[in-house]
Amino acid sequence: MSDRIIAARVVVCSPGRNYVTLIIETASGLTGIGDATLNGRELAVASYLADHVAPLLIGRDPAQIEDIWQYLYRGAYWRRGPVTMTAIAGIDVALWDIKAKAAGMPLYQLLGGASRERMLCYTHADGADIAEALDAVAAKREHGFRAVRVQAGVPGLNRIYGVHGDGAGDSYARPIEGDWDTSAYLRHTPKLFEAARERFGPELHLLHDAHHRLTPNEAAQLGRSLEPYRLFWVEDPVTAEAQEGWRRVRSQTTVPLAVGEVFNSIWDAQLLITERLVDYLRATIVHAGGITHVRRIADLCALYSVRTGFHGANDLSPVTMGAALHFGRWVPNFGIQEYAAHPAQAEEVFGWDWSYAGGHLLSGEAAGHGVTFDEQAAARFPYRRQYLDVNRLTDGTMWDW
Amino acid sequence: MSDRIIAARVVVCSPGRNYVTLIIETASGLTGIGDATLNGRELAVASYLADHVAPLLIGRDPAQIEDIWQYLYRGAYWRRGPVTMTAIAGIDVALWDIKAKAAGMPLYQLLGGASRERMLCYTHADGADIAEALDAVAAKREHGFRAVRVQAGVPGLNRIYGVHGDGAGDSYARPIEGDWDTSAYLRHTPKLFEAARERFGPELHLLHDAHHRLTPNEAAQLGRSLEPYRLFWVEDPVTAEAQEGWRRVRSQTTVPLAVGEVFNSIWDAQLLITERLVDYLRATIVHAGGITHVRRIADLCALYSVRTGFHGANDLSPVTMGAALHFGRWVPNFGIQEYAAHPAQAEEVFGWDWSYAGGHLLSGEAAGHGVTFDEQAAARFPYRRQYLDVNRLTDGTMWDW
Amino acid sequence: MSDRIIAARVVVCSPGRNYVTLIIETASGLTGIGDATLNGRELAVASYLADHVAPLLIGRDPAQIEDIWQYLYRGAYWRRGPVTMTAIAGIDVALWDIKAKAAGMPLYQLLGGASRERMLCYTHADGADIAEALDAVAAKREHGFRAVRVQAGVPGLNRIYGVHGDGAGDSYARPIEGDWDTSAYLRHTPKLFEAARERFGPELHLLHDAHHRLTPNEAAQLGRSLEPYRLFWVEDPVTAEAQEGWRRVRSQTTVPLAVGEVFNSIWDAQLLITERLVDYLRATIVHAGGITHVRRIADLCALYSVRTGFHGANDLSPVTMGAALHFGRWVPNFGIQEYAAHPAQAEEVFGWDWSYAGGHLLSGEAAGHGVTFDEQAAARFPYRRQYLDVNRLTDGTMWDW
Amino acid sequence: MSDRIIAARVVVCSPGRNYVTLIIETASGLTGIGDATLNGRELAVASYLADHVAPLLIGRDPAQIEDIWQYLYRGAYWRRGPVTMTAIAGIDVALWDIKAKAAGMPLYQLLGGASRERMLCYTHADGADIAEALDAVAAKREHGFRAVRVQAGVPGLNRIYGVHGDGAGDSYARPIEGDWDTSAYLRHTPKLFEAARERFGPELHLLHDAHHRLTPNEAAQLGRSLEPYRLFWVEDPVTAEAQEGWRRVRSQTTVPLAVGEVFNSIWDAQLLITERLVDYLRATIVHAGGITHVRRIADLCALYSVRTGFHGANDLSPVTMGAALHFGRWVPNFGIQEYAAHPAQAEEVFGWDWSYAGGHLLSGEAAGHGVTFDEQAAARFPYRRQYLDVNRLTDGTMWDW
Predict the structure, then answer these.
(1) What is the pTM of this model?
(2) C334 closest CA partner among C359, C309, C313
(3) Sorted alphabetically, which Pfam families does this protein's record hold (chains A, B, C, D) (predicted)?
């Protein structure tokens, strides 16, 4: 009586950006779509899926999502990490897509039904200097956004995160190298937000991404210096391999903190959450083991007053955005959703029923997660290797990007 | 397009025992059944539901389980506690029953699919003295049980938990009063399990319930004295309002510990779980806010190597057992399920598709949780007030039952 | 020689608001009055008392208050929670009323005699905007109040706690739904108190109730932003199921904190008190198990420099206010008493000898707690179901009210 | 003047087992060999290297090992995990091989020179029952081994870790599924070591691997039960994603504990080490980022009295063993080295100058790490997909292998 998986295919395509997509088909004719994109390391995940894991799916009951998740997580022996957990996520989301289709329900219904009708989102505004950054904010505000992440160039630095300098190199050949000076950054950033508040008043939600570049004490300094400007959050002020390091930041400032777009499992955040060291968790469905696992992360967060703030750069495919919006429709402790429009070509390959309106994102009502994938169209956009940036201090030292 | 609730009725009946049942009906013709029985305080829950909460359900979308849960939990203002959380559980289980029926799936499929085919269960064996208790164990073992909770009378005491003395009074008029002497109990209990291991060998799982009567240090003494007999667990050695009190027990013995049949929310167990002070959590679906909330408890448990060991006395109606077995079918960190057969008359009122076989319980495959309720039959078994026991020390002091 | 209880009746009436009153009569002709009102869930408590507990009181010695308390608390098996503890409180206060009458003494004498002659109280001043709120404060100050809780509408929100918007719905049919935006609140509230201090100078005690709506970190932000205005306290900035969460608030601000009107037992506050995370405890006699239990809470508070600040909204009947003022007359670590006048009709049903004068409340000298109840008058005011408000974020998410 | 990398090739071959080997060639004619084998997920690492990372090495100075390590670790953005850290390890070891060859020195000289002449090693002895296991121990002892890991079949289980049952399936098609029963294991294991000590006396070092299958409390029980037999260590009694979980084990037993063959970075062990929760750390050069990173792990260990006990199953290629023995030659806090002979065919592909003698392993004196790789020979042994086992409880639940 139960259904069974008859095919599991990985397709790597590049409609504007590289995406790794998993298609699972069942004997009863259902198709599930999962995203398994790991920006800059796409083919390793594709190999993990195609060469090692996909063959194991054939013949299994697609309804046994939990068992398959545990089979892949525990059964790999070598646990966690971005490649493994992205591969598992691709399968998990495809299976939830199938289950929701089998139930004839939009995915959020299986999670517990709608807790809200629309999801607040934030977008990006960048500029080479403060004036340019604020103009970018103004443009986003006119487009209806109520929350904007602002990044501005720092005088003396050529290229920093979120702000694209000129002549930056060829990311298809090798990572572009940015430069970094923490002192300059710490001096400059409060000016950016002082100017932003002056121009836009108190209501617009302002966010900022420090992109892993500070020590905990420097992050505490940054946090304090930004408190007068009431940011929605400061993201990733420090790397988080050492979760206890965040105690230092937290002890010194009440600036809201967000973390976790690079996290792959609940263990990457367990102490950060349970010691209430952060306010928003950004672990995504695609990189943290899928809906099955991220639901556990979000539920742990809820116990400790932490809200979701999912990563949503456009290197996560429309499939991940679709799943995220169904998740956001349900999850009681929703915070905010990052939103960056996908490349125009992606619309030739992916179809979706989620939408943007007035500073919010809306999930659709189609059965499943509502995102489709056109394999023939995908074939028109072959994979092209591309790298994320790296970062060096001005003396040449490798630093965190 | 969405369905809506058109009726929510509470039925209190007593087919052998008192049960409070909630029936929710929807415009599309679906019916959900929930258990809201709180042994000895049934009518307070029935009033909570019928007089205050049921009217609020009419017209709502039954698919919005999470929103309704939050509405009832946060919206009550006065939170937690057995009456409130049992009422919420009754509604929550009925709504999950409806959602699974709407999806045409057995409930465990909505939770993530089957992680196992059968659920290990334990039953009860009691005796006025050790010999009688062991005979009772032998009878259960012959019936196929692989795990048996053993309670024996303590010399010098008339009536203790799990062992019914004679002339015990009329529980319909007032609580029967047992007597208690911790020293006698601590001296006697190791003898019970020494004899049990001698008679039944090392394989049979033996459990024991200390029923809240010890201090943490006394519990540590008990635990140490039982270590040679390798119990599956010692249940409720101390009351748990002060969760930190269990640190003392835990620091002194490795005897496995179970706790929580009286818990109503995750907050009752948060420290017990996160400090790994227990091995099994017994919070039930009916008393801890339903599937929506117990899923969160179980997931927290999993992070800390705690397994489920749901309460399953027969004052929980067949509906709760049905829901528990669907839950157990899915939950990755399943431990064991308590099982006590319901009164024969209950079969005239409730219908169920779960079953017992060879020391295990099996969930059914009907859509929903698989338990039905016959309102007309229920009317033949009117409610009759009955009390749980109380307990006094031999000097007359009120003690924990 | 000992007296015995011959009757225990529950009366639910609605002289302006709903009240649940317990009347206990003894063979010797004494009558004790207890309040068992749980706003919005009144009938569940009434059922708990009338259907389950009252019958057990008949024949007992009313002087055995401690034994009866333990009998009801431990003997219920299912412990704690608002319904249970309110029911126990109703009985406990009635028994203390009887005992004091038997002694021919005002209740405070049995607690240890008077520690003070009058109890500082605070009242409420609300306004749709800051100007209106401050006018309300001025009116209260003219009436002699030395401490005023101030709540003001937040621009952009229709209806928030303490401030009644227009056309908000029918609380007799269902909870009125307020809306909430934490960012707007955090921006606006400091302005309210800046204006209040400007207008009223430094001496008037200003209080504020955040009504459970913030995360700990947001509460820390609020506390810091209010420090310049030297509030008497900030009440309930966050929910308190997770007591450890308050460490975050406390580590970041010295603003005095009050908590606990929803608490039902000492366990709800144990960590908050012993870690000195709060300054005032608001657990009330009616919802936290009566005089017997609240005395223990207050005594624990004293060890850790925490003072009483009893809840005193007018959904607590005049009986609770009477008991609270006797308690306040005695308790060494008295802080302040909330005071909101009861509806005029309540005076037709209840009689009391406590009084207000010059910003203080005074307890009476009649034997017992000094509050009487006219059952015939009560019959003129039948119960009418009414709900407390609920609260949603502006995106529709259920939130804490 | 500096050299530069002109080629970086990945070769996947299967001389008896699958191995992933990285060959780096420099302009000056030096060749470095690295192992990047991740058992059961080999091709994902090969893709990570060949498709994403190897191109970035071309043109770099091979002497800049630290910079390249940081470039790959920080520059990947998505950090840690088995695939990433194994890929980095492959490069790191090849670069250290080159540097040592450039210096004309055996690798241990660059680490700080020899601290000892030989490295104590342990090997494996398994048996379907206790008698067979002890015979295997005897055989190993006769071969000179002074330390033996002993695993025996558990009555009632078909196939458990380290003990191969019959007819177990085809690991080339899918993971073989073992079965598991913790109770049976806990009862049986003390008997194994009681018999071993009886037969072999007190001097032989006995080790045991619980292979991640216990909860912390069960591990404490195991540890206590084995204390009389003075084991060298108990390995991996529990999974280690939650490092704090080991506090429970450690608080209850003094049995020496080893952990970490699945670890990929210092962050996986930071709390285990700094809280002294273990005695031996098993993180390997191949899976934990190479010599550059494991040196840091070992140095942290030394601060807290933790010794090395490197994983050394034969799915780590001879390259990893060569590097490990140079590391062991130097590292001050060396503990023991696991040793399992490689398949005979591996000798056709790899050449090495390390050797076994009298219960110890000896590193060679050739420049570099002393292990060579014959690409032409490798071509004769094409990759064949094979899976590690998985494990289920007897009720079907997925469990840790």
Answers:
(1) 0.97
(2) C309
(3) MR_MLE_C, MR_MLE_N
